[in-house]
UniProtKB/TrEMBL annotation:
Binding positions (ATP): K364
KW Iron-sulfur (keyword) present: no
Keyword Nucleotide-binding recorded: yes
Single biological process term from Gene Ontology: plant-type hypersensitive response
Subcellular location(s) of the protein: Membrane
Species classification: Eukaryota, Viridiplantae, Streptophyta, Embryophyta, Tracheophyta
Name of the protein in its database record: Cysteine-rich receptor-like protein kinase 25
Length: 662
């Protein structure tokens, strides 16, 4: 038994020691479209080039570019780059290993790139210096999942952007290398590393790094680690330190000038058995601990999965990947055929489409002139496409062609909440637990828009028909970011163009055009009351005096009979506690004074925890149909009602009411 352990220890120590000396190969790329013959001058020049690179690495450089050959047809351009934190010795070992390895893996190819953990070799028969090469692009992912993905993505984006700024700053002369760290939680730290080949200009390096960062959501979403590798730059992040923190904390280390003493390859190998021989008998228990650490450490470094990027045909900036051809959209929607039409809102018609890949999409063909230039439209669409949350309908891309502006969304199968909530036949499908799940999901999605995403987005048109339901009845908020895409956004302030829906607009917004996160909170309050009650606020008729849902809810609350508000189809199958909390939250949200309304963060907390005591709501802002029109002196009501009436969507589907103060 103990013999077995010692054996295991020896084996493990042996392999660990070997691993520490070994250079980790990652990937190589050498298309066989351009090849040389084994006897050619090119081959001779390539061999000379690789020798020159190795000797320069031995001399202490971390980057070197050189050419060999005289005649145009057989010149070889080549470079090596070591990771910024790697020691001279590490760099030398890596380049030496990689130059030998690359000619094994790419025996006849003129152009090759090989990535090792610590270095990169790149050569070609064309000049590759000072030229950003973002193709081919490879992703490597650490398959372990992160736990709090939204928060993690946010921290990752910030950390990467900080790192890019550092790498571009020339505090490390000629290095174009940076690492950046951030605390994810009390126990977890995020480590990131970014590097360009130093022959690039700052602006090319920036382009390359931004392109790589923009790819992280595609390659590595929800993963604990990931890398994007291109010949010109690479980025990586992990939840463990994968670079030498001591080496990077030394700011602007001067490049070593004297070559390190030559180390004979045999020497280090010879020491290995001696070390084992001395240590193993003495400190078995210490080694056991060491072994455990090694194994744990290895387990943490989950297997890497190489994913070649499917579309490496040109440099993949975010805009290009998000832009769709008009012809593709035409085919996908069967020429915008009526049978594909899903509905119509204030921004235009919505069609269902199917991409050639089989992916179903929803296509929103914008009808209004947006006052937004092409470039701004693109930029905003790219920003909005980056907002990803399970309670938001994902923007997949856009199309700009022939005066058309089109937004392409993921297709959400179950249509919108109002199709269930206000349909006498289907409303029974929404039992209380489903309704509660929808309320919680909408609050989470809104919290992300308000506080957790990279941009602060005020929705401005939150309502039942903008809540789509997936096949599991999970809610997804749609139409967010429209104000941005339409160029009418200010994060807070007063707007001349009021975009919103009658019945959901807070009084300060409808009357004075003042919007803030608190106007969205108001809309959420209306939405919550509608979900509890099963009737529209704007279409609410009762025989008694109260003439809208908010007034009715307030009246019942004051009477101490809040459950009167509950949809009668729910009968006895509900949680009394949850229903009353929802009504109370709804009433808190529709209070007249925006400052008294809770924030989305507070709402999400109130919904998550029953132990939070809710404040007592004040009298809501009454917003009676009959009076408001008369009470808005400077507001002309231009709405889509007349056009919407002719569509299959009912009058109450009106998705936009635009009010232009004169
Ligand atoms: C290039 O590689 C592909 C795939 O490995 C192979 O099918 C093809 O025959 C190769 N072409 C040449 C010229 O070697
Ligand atoms: C390479 O060149 C040598 C002499 O120049 C010749 O004998 C040999 O056949 C050549 N080999 C090939 C593969 O062309
Ligand atoms: C580095 O490479 C250059 C060619 O680019 C060569 O002239 C020089 O001798 C090399 N330096 C060393 C120390 O090998
Ligand atoms: C290395 O790259 C720089 C920048 O592109 C270039 O000016 C220089 O000539 C290159 N060196 C060699 C030896 O080709
Ligand atoms: C590189 O090699 C390919 C194929 O041998 C050739 O078509 C191309 O023109 C070469 N490029 C240069 C710059 O010589
Ligand atoms: C990560 O999550 C995905 C689904 O979200 C799952 O398929 C995969 O097995 C998980 N991976 C690990 C290592 O837990
Ligand atoms: C770049 O470095 C300078 C001096 O070290 C510093 O003042 C500046 O803030 C840095 N810029 C960025 C974007 O990090
Ligand atoms: C992370 O937290 C530790 C203490 O918990 C602190 O010392 C360190 O500075 C933090 N690091 C960053 C990057 O904020
Ligand atoms: C990390 O870097 C420091 C300073 O460059 C060096 O002394 C140390 O040996 C390095 N550690 C490892 C594990 O390479």
């Amino acid at each position: 038994m103990s013999l077995f352990f010692v054996l295991l220890l020896l084996l493990s120590l042996f392999s660990f020691t070997i691993e520490a000396q070994q250079q980790t190969y990652l990937l190589h790329y050498c298309p066989n479209t351009t090849i040389f013959s084994p006897n050619s001058t090119y081959k001779t020049n390539l061999d000379r080039l690789l020798i020159s690179l190795t000797s320069n690495a031995t001399a202490g450089s971390f980057f070197h570019n050189t050419t060999t050959g005289k005649h145009n047809s057989d010149i070889v351009y080549g470079l090596f780059l070591c990771r910024g934190d790697v020691s001279t010795k590490g760099c030398q070992d890596c380049v030496s290993t990689a130059t030998k390895d690359v000619i094994q893996r790419c025996p006849v190819e003129k152009t090759a790139v090989i990535w090792y953990d610590n270095c990169l070799i790149h050569y070609s028969n064309q000049s590759i210096f000072s030229t950003p090469a973002m193709v081919p692009k490879f992703y490597l992912i650490n398959t372990a999942n992160v736990s709090n993905q939204e928060r993690f993505n946010q921290i990752l984006a910030t950390t990467m952007n900080d790192g890019a700024a550092l790498a571009l700053n020339d505090t490390l002369p000629l290095k174009k290398f940076a690492t950046s760290e951030a605390n994810v939680s009390r126990f977890q730290t995020l480590y990131s590393l970014l590097q360009c080949t130093p022959d690039l200009t700052t602006s090319d390096c920036n382009t390359c790094l931004r392109g790589a960062i923009a790819d992280l959501p595609n390659c590595c979403d929800g993963k604990q680690g990931g890398r994007v590798l291109t010949p010109s730059c690479s980025i990586r992040y992990e939840l463990y330190p994968f670079y030498n923190q001591t080496a990077v904390s030394v700011s602007a280390p001067p490049p070593p000038l004297t070559p390190p003493p030559a180390i004979t390859p045999g020497k280090s190998k010879n020491t290995l058995p001696i070390i084992i021989a001395i240590i193993a008998p003495i400190a078995v228990s210490v080694l056991l601990l060491f072994l455990c650490c090694c194994l744990l450490k290895r387990r943490a470094r989950k297997k890497y999965k190489a994913v070649e990027e499917e579309n490496a045909k040109d440099d993949i900036s975010a805009i290009e990947t998000l832009q769709y051809d008009f012809s593709t959209i035409e085919v996908a929607t069967n020429n915008f055929s009526y049978s594909n039409k899903l509905g119509e809102g204030g921004f235009g018609e919505v069609y269902k489409g199917t991409l050639p890949s089989g992916q179903e999409i929803a296509v929103k063909r914008l009808s209004r002139s947006s006052g937004q230039g092409i470039e701004e439209f693109k930029n905003e669409a790219v920003l909005v496409a980056k907002l990803q949350h399970r309670n938001l309908v994902r923007l997949l891309g856009f199309c700009l062609e022939r005066e058309e502006k089109i937004l392409i969304y993921e297709f959400v199968p179950n249509r919108s909440l109002d199709c269930f909530l206000f349909d006498p036949e289907k409303q029974a499908q929404l039992d209380w637990s489903t309704r509660y799940k929808i309320i919680v999901g909408v609050a989470r999605g809104m919290l992300y828009l308000h506080e957790d995403s990279r941009l602060k987005i005020i929705h401005r048109d939150l309502k039942v028909s903008n809540i789509l339901l997936d096949s599991d009845m999970n809610p997804k908020i749609s139409d967010f970011g429209m104000a941005r895409i339409f160029g009418v956004d200010q994060t807070q302030g007063t707007t001349k163009r009021v975009v919103g829906t009658y019945g959901y607009m807070s009084p300060e917004y409808a009357m004075h055009g003042q919007f803030s996160v608190k106007s969205d909170v108001f809309s959420l309050g209306v939405l919550v009351l509608e979900i509890v009650n099963g009737k529209r606020n704007s279409n609410f008729y009762r025989t008694d005096a109260a003439d809208d849902l908010i007034s009715y809810a307030w009246k019942q609350w004051k009477n101490g009979t809040p459950l009167e508000l509950l949809d009668t189809v729910l009968k006895d199958n509900y949680s009394r506690n949850e229903v009353i909390r929802c009504i109370q939250i709804g009433l808190l949200c529709v209070q007249e004074d925006p400052a008294e309304r809770p924030t989305m963060a507070t709402i999400a907390m109130m919904l998550n925890s029953y132990s939070v005591t809710l404040p007592v709501p004040n009298e809501p802002a009454f917003f009676r149909n009959s009076r408001t029109e008369g009470k808005m002196p400077n507001v002309g009501l231009e709405s889509d009602q007349s056009t919407s009436r002719s569509t299959p969507w009912s009058i109450n589907e009106v998705s936009i009411t635009e009010l232009d103060p004169r």
